[in-house]
Amino acid sequence: MDATGQTGRTGQLARPCRAGQTAVLVKHGGYRKLKSFRTAQLSFDITVQFCSRFVDRRSRTHDQMVQAARSGVQNIAEGSQASATSKRTELKLTGVARASLEELGLDFEDYLRQHGLALWPRDHPALVELRRCRPETLDEFRAWVNDEELHRRAAIEMAQRAQSASPSSPSSPSSLPIRIPPIDVRVANGALLIIGVACYCLDKQLESLGEAFAEEGGFTERLDRLRRERRSRPCTSSPRQTSCPTALTA
Q1: pLDDT in tens, 62-97
Q2: Tens digits of per-residue pLDDT, 209-220?
Q3: Of 1.20.120.1200, 1.20.1440.60, 3.30.420.10, 1.10.1840.10, which CATH number belongs to 1-117+198-227?
Q4: Whole-angstrom Cα Rg for the chain
Q5: What is d(CA 89, CA 91) in angstroms, rounded to the nearest whole number?
Q6: Model confidence, pTM
């Protein structure tokens, strides 16, 4: 993954420059190849489907969850595109995307808590399988949600863990009631994992962007370097030109 978002299919360079010369506009865009963007986009698709089915359309929560998910996607894209002329803006918008996804994750947790549903631990067998599958599309995520056999095995394993944690219980794992979690529990817990991956990628992206900004500066610094380079070029005289080219003006 390119953490800075400077390469990719939509990346573009405003004007070619000679070797060793500072470019006014660096490569920008390319957000479609960022793992943070692809994962945030998947979380957006999941959220829209989840809210349409399980959250009252008339409630404020419905709109807030959808808008938070959308904000995560759109701000990654806008920040990547803005990087051509403002690294500060890229950093700011990437941070907004990270905050929006954090808010979205809390909304999913609130849904589970307020409905008395289980928030799965990170090592839940079904989540381990979801991490292994690495879904990139809504259809791939939906296949994981609808895999009844996977969730039945996961429920059995969780029941066995609970039994092992309480050895004084007379019941054997085979005699315990095994209930496959309902759809909303599967979707919400799966969404939380996907959102967590997006947040992790954005944390790394922000770290990389901050280091690059500290070392290289932004658009203003590039303009200053380009002016100095133009002014330091040796003058060449010709029959029709005896003066040096003027420096680049802002």
Answers
A1: 999 999 999 999 999 999 888 877 888 899 999 999
A2: 888 777 665 555
A3: 1.20.1440.60
A4: 26
A5: 5
A6: 0.75
